[in-house]
C-alpha cells in the first residue's frame, strides 16, 4: 500500500445481525467482568467492553449495549456500548481538540510511538489472533496471518512518518521558488468491516497517526473487541488522549455514520464495504466536500485456459475462492474454465473442496470456519438455489450444516449461467461457481460483465 499523508485510508460495514440488548446499569459491571472469561486470553485486560472517547473508557449515555456472538458456537462473548449521536459528536470534538497538539509533534515522535505500538502488538500476538478467531470465526492460522498483516501496517507507517518529504518545483519566474509541503489534514473518520477486524483498522489508523491526524473509529458490531484491544495497546504505547476515539454502535449506525461523514470537523472519510453503502457515504461526505477513500464490493473473475497447469489452477482457486470461507472482497466469485479442460478442473476442485474440515476456528484441524451470521448463510443459499433453478448442477455442498454456529457447506456449482445471481452479486461465502467458455474473446466479455468496481483478476494459462 503506498504511503499517504493528507490521505489516510479507512473502512466500514454498516449492517449487522446483532440486535442491541439493554442491560440495567446496576448489573452492567458484573456482567462485563464475567464475560472476559469467555475469551481465554493470557492478558485479560485486553478485553475492553466500553467505547473510548477523549482518553476515557465510557458506556453509552442511555445504557444500551450490543451483544457480540461467537459465530462458531452461537454463544455470547460479551457486550459493548450502543453509542449514539451525542457520543459521536463528543468523539469528533475530542479528536479535533487533540489534533491541535498531535499535528505539531515531530515525525520522530510519531515514529517512536508507532514502533512501540507495533512492539506491543507483537508481544500480544497470540491474544490478538485468538480474539479475531473468537469474534470473526476464521481459523486460528488465518487469524495469525491477519495479525502479521495488521502489525505490518503499523511498522510500515512508523517508518513512513519520518519520510514526509516535500517537493521543489521549477518556477517560471526567476525570483520565485515553488515549494510543496505536506501537512496532516485533520480528523479522520475510520469505519471498518468485520472480515478483517484488525488489519482494516491498522491499515487506516497507522496512516492517520503517522501523518499527524487524529481519528474516530466505528468498528463493526460483529467484531468490536479486536478494535478495542488495538486501542488499548495504542494507549499503552503512548498515543495521547483524544488522538484515537472509538464509537461502537449497531442500532444507531445510520445516525453515527451520517455524523462521521457530515461533521465539519472531520476532514477525511474512508470506507471498505458494500457498493450501496459506498454510494451513500459519497453522498454524505459530498455535502462538505470531504476527501473520501472507497473500497467497495467486488465480483472477481478467475479464468482457466486450456493450456493451464490444472493442479496449479485448482490450488489457486482454493486460495482465491475459499480464504476466510469466501468472506473477502477479493475472493474469486466467478470461475470461468475453457471447455476442453472444464470437466477435469471441476472434478479436481470438487475433490479438494470435499476434503475441507469445517469447524470451530480454535480447533487445529479446522481449515474453514463459519460465516459471520445467519444473514450471510441466507444469501449464499439464495445464490445456490437461484443458480440451480437456472440450470446449474450442484457438484458438492449447497446447504447449511447442522448444529450450532453459522456453518455452510463449501459448495461447488457447475454450468452456472451468466444471468445467475452469483455472477451478478458478491456472494461473500464458500460458493465456487463454474462457467465454461470457448474463446478468449468470449471470456473477456464475460469477466467484464459486472457493475462492480473491485475486480481483482486471476488467469491461469
UniProtKB/TrEMBL annotation:
The EC category is oxidoreductase
CDD domains of this UniProt entry? ALDH_F5_SSADH_GabD
Read off the PROSITE patterns from this record: ALDEHYDE_DEHYDR_GLU (PS00687)
Q: Does the keyword Oxidoreductase apply?
A: yes
Q: In which pathway does it act?
A: Amino-acid degradation; 4-aminobutanoate degradation
Keyword field contains Oxidoreductase: yes
The enzyme's E.C. designation: 1.2.1.16
Please indicate which superkingdom the organism of origin belongs to: Eukaryota
A GO molecular function term, named singly, is: succinate-semialdehyde dehydrogenase (NAD+) activity
Q: Which UniProt keywords apply?
A: Oxidoreductase
Q: Which reaction does it catalyse?
A: succinate semialdehyde + NAD(+) + H2O = succinate + NADH + 2 H(+); succinate semialdehyde + NADP(+) + H2O = succinate + NADPH + 2 H(+)
Q: Where is the Aldehyde dehydrogenase domain?
A: 57-451
Active site residues according to the UniProt entry: 295
Q: Name one GO biological process term.
A: gamma-aminobutyric acid catabolic process
State the GO CC annotations: cytoplasm
Q: Which family does it belong to?
A: Belongs to the aldehyde dehydrogenase family.
What is the protein name given in its UniProt record? Answer: succinate-semialdehyde dehydrogenase [NAD(P)(+)]
UniProt organism field: Trametes coccinea (strain BRFM310) (Pycnoporus coccineus)
Amino acid at each position: 500500500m503506498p504511503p499517504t499523508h493528507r490521505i489516510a485510508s479507512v473502512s466500514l460495514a454498516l449492517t449487522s445481525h446483532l440486535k442491541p440488548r439493554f442491560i440495567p446499569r446496576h448489573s452492567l459491571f458484573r456482567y462485563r467482568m464475567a464475560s472476559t472469561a469467555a475469551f481465554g486470553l493470557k492478558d485479560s485486560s485486553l478485553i475492553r467492553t466500553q467505547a473510548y472517547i477523549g482518553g476515557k473508557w465510557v458506556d453509552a449515555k442511555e445504557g444500551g449495549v450490543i451483544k457480540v456472538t461467537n459465530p462458531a458456537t452461537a454463544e455470547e462473548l460479551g457486550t459493548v456500548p450502543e453509542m449514539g449521536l451525542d457520543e459521536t459528536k463528543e468523539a469528533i470534538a475530542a479528536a479535533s481538540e487533540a489534533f491541535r497538539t498531535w499535528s505539531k509533534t515531530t515525525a520522530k515522535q510519531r515514529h517512536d510511538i508507532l514502533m512501540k505500538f507495533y512492539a506491543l502488538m507483537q508481544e500480544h500476538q497470540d491474544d490478538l489472533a485468538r480474539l479475531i478467531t473468537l469474534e470473526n470465526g476464521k481459523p486460528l492460522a488465518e487469524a495469525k496471518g491477519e495479525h502479521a498483516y495488521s502489525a505490518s501496517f503499523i511498522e510500515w507507517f512508523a517508518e513512513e512518518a519520518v519520510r514526509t518529504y516535500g517537493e521543489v518545483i521549477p518556477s517560471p519566474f526567476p525570483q520565485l521558488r515553488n515549494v510543496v509541503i505536506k501537512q496532516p489534514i485533520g480528523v479522520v473518520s475510520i469505519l471498518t468491516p468485520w472480515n478483517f477486524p484488525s488489519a482494516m483498522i491498522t491499515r487506516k489508523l497507522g496512516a492517520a497517526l503517522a501523518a499527524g491526524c487524529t481519528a474516530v473509529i466505528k468498528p463493526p458490531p460483529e467484531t468490536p473487541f479486536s478494535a478495542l484491544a488495538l486501542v488499548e495497546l495504542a494507549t499503552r504505547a503512548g498515543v495521547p488522549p483524544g488522538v484515537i476515539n472509538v464509537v461502537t454502535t449497531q442500532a444507531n449506525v445510520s445516525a453515527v455514520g451520517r455524523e462521521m461523514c457530515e461533521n465539519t470537523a472531520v476532514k477525511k472519510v474512508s470506507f471498505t464495504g458494500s457498493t450501496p453503502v459506498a454510494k451513500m457515504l459519497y453522498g454524505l461526505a459530498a455535502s462538505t466536500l470531504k476527501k473520501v477513500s472507497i473500497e467497495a464490493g467486488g465480483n472477481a473473475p478467475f479464468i482457466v485456459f486450456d493450456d493451464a497447469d490444472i493442479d496449479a489452477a485448482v490450488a489457486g482457486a482454493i486460495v482465491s475462492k475459499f480464504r476466510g470461507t469466501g468472506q473477502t472482497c477479493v475472493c474469486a466469485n466467478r470461475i470461468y474454465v475453457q471447455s476442453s479442460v472444464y470437466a477435469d478442473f471441476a472434478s479436481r476442485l470438487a475433490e479438494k473442496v470435499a476434503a475441507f474440515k469445517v469447524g470451530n476456528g480454535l480447533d487445529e484441524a479446522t481449515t474453514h470456519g463459519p460465516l459471520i451470521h445467519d444473514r450471510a448463510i441466507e444469501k449464499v443459499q439464495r445464490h445456490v438455489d437461484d443458480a440451480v433453478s437456472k440450470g446449474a448442477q450442484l457438484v458438492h455442498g449447497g446447504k447449511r450444516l447442522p448444529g450450532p454456529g453459522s456453518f455452510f457447506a463449501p459448495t461447488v456449482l457447475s454450468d452456472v449461467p451468466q444471468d445467475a445471481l452469483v455472477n451478478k452479486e458478491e456472494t461473500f461465502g464458500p460458493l465456487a461457481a463454474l462457467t465454461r467458455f470457448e474463446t478468449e474473446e468470449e471470456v473477456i466479455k464475460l469477466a467484464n460483465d459486472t457493475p462492480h468496481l473491485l475486480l481483482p483478476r486471476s488467469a491461469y494459462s
